[in-house]
Amino acid sequence: MANYDLSGSDGLSIKFYLVNNTGASIQSGRRIDIAAKLGSYDLPNESLVVTMRGYVDLSTGVLDTVDMTLVDTPIKYNPALKNLFLQKDLPNNKALLLEIAPAIDFYNLGFKNLPVSAGYISVYAYFSTVAGVYSDLNASQGEQIFAEYDKRLIVPDGPGITLKALNGSGIVKDYSFRNTGEQSFSGLSLNTNNQTVYISRNGVCVVGVSTPSTYGIRAKVSTLNGYTKPCSWTSYNALTLNHNLIVNCVFPVNTNGYSQIRSDYTDSLIAGLNDRAKLNATKIAIYVQEQSSGTIRRFIADINPLLQQQAVTITNWSSGTDIGTSLPTIANNFGLFAPSSCSLTTSSGTSGLPAATYRVSYAFFYTTDNEGVTSISHSVTDGCYRDWETDRKSTRLNSSH
Fold first, then answer.
1. Nearest-CA neighbor of 310 among 340, 347, 352?
2. Alpha helices (H) in 181-247, listed in sequence order
3. DSSP β-bridge partners for residue 102
4. C-alpha to C-alpha distance for 335 and 333, rounded to whole angstroms
5. Which stretches in the chain have pLDDT values below 50?
6. Tens of pLDDT, residues 115-160
7. Where would I find the beta strands (DSSP E) of 21-82?
8. Which distant-in-sequence residues (6+ apart) come within 8 Å of 135 by Cβ?
9. Contacts (Cβ under 8 Å, ≥6 apart) of 295
10. Cα separation of 319 and 253, whole Å?
11. What is the pLDDT of residues 296-329, one digit of tens each?
12. What is the pLDDT of residue 82?
């Protein structure tokens, strides 16, 4: 390492590669700890700046930064904060790339009669198995998630049945963790209700564990298939012969690819949550109602959940499924995302649609080839941890219902 003047400013960084050669993936949530010394003396907290750069493929050298929100964010290292960890599984034959730089202030060292000008800085980074910090608050306040940061809430992480635990703090089984960062994880079963997401003493979330006595329950999750509630009907539009229906569907997706959980969702902790979850549907059901008969037909279409809107052309009335004259009734807790809106126009072309007056609506559709997380509960009535209502100094506890 180059010379460093103990000014407290960031020095030159050195790359560290934490290699996974275990033959299996290292699970997301595994903490990274760092031991650092100046000569034979331990460095005080926040004497190093650590930046995660991503996962390096040891065969190709390709750097993977997908779904890693901590990447390229300098962190003043403090082992008590537990804020360095794997945000997704680290595959075998890949390495976590860290850059570590000194940021040592001479006046914070507290060394007496130590010739620091001749000292060497030594740094050792490693995967840790240590859990959170023991806390006696559990005896007086109980196990809980603190109402700071994003409360370690569980949300969908895009198409499929992957989940994301947002950052947060809490007390689990007598141990506390502080501002554990976002973590993507999997393990859910397809088309299954009431699956348990556990949280460890270190704030790491998993689906199902072999030793639940060392974990608490953060959420209950369902992946049941079905249709969400549809958006509002459009106005009726007259269609003439040899014309098609063009349905333009607007999705609850913003410019950075994130979505808003619907504001009327039954779990108040995540209802209306914005810029944290990703839309997880890749199919929609378009409902078309013919005005004179009232008949509704359902048409299924594929969508790209990263787009903000998408047009679907309907050309053949008989290709839709007749569902009667009313839309289906949907449970209030089914479907985390609300279809935004749609509009209807027509275009000329070969068509199998009768000349008539139509209106349209659409819903998200989850099925065997479009599995997704369709309900989440953080409620204490489902056995989940309480959240602290105001801040970590409060004594009032609040459930999600």
1. 340
2. none
3. 48
4. 6
5. 112, 390-401
6. 555 567 888 899 876 556 666 655 555 678 988 889 999 999 988 8
7. 31-38, 41-42, 48-57, 63-64, 75-76
8. 171, 174, 175, 176
9. 289, 322, 324, 325
10. 29
11. 999 999 999 989 999 999 999 999 999 999 999 9
12. 60
Token code pair at residue 353: 């649609």
The reported pLDDT for the residue numbered 393 is: 44
Q: What angle do CA 105, 107, 110 make, to 5 degrees?
A: 110
Which DSSP state fits 113? S
Q: Are strands 386-388 and 144-145 parallel, antiparallel or unpaired?
A: parallel
Tell if the pTM clears 0.90, that is, is over it: no
Environment class of residue 138 by beta-carbon count within 10 Å: exposed (0-12), middle (13-18) or buried (19+)? middle
Instruction: Give whole-number Cα distances, 354 to 91, 246, 360, in Å.
Output: 55, 15, 15
Cβ contact 122:22 at 8 Å? no
Amino acid at 7: S
> Which residues have a Cβ under 8 Å from the Cβ of 61 and sit 6 or more positions away?
none
Length of the chain equals: 401
25: amino acid identity, one letter = S
Q: Are 92 and 22 in contact (CB under 8 A)?
A: yes
- Amino acid in position 379: S
Please state, in angstroms and as integers, the Cα–Cα distance from residue 75 to each residue in 102, 133, 211, following that order: 12, 20, 32
Q: Which pLDDT value is given to residue 394?
A: 45
CA nearest to 25, candidates 107, 94, 76, 122: 94
- Per-residue confidence (pLDDT) for residue 397, from 0 to 100: 47
Count the Cβ atoms, other than its own, within 10 Å of residue 207: 18
pLDDT for 399 equals: 45
Q: Token pair for residue 185?
A: 């994880």
Per residue, the 3-state secondary structure of 2-27, as one string, reads: CCCCCECCCCCCEEEEEEECCCCCEC
With a CB cutoff of 8 Å and minimum separation 6, the contacts of 297 are: 287, 288, 290, 317, 320, 321, 322, 323
Residue given tokens 């506890």 in the structure block? 397
Residue 245 pLDDT: 97
Extended beta strands in 173-258, E state: 175-180, 183-185, 195-200, 205-207, 215-222, 226-227, 237-239, 243-250
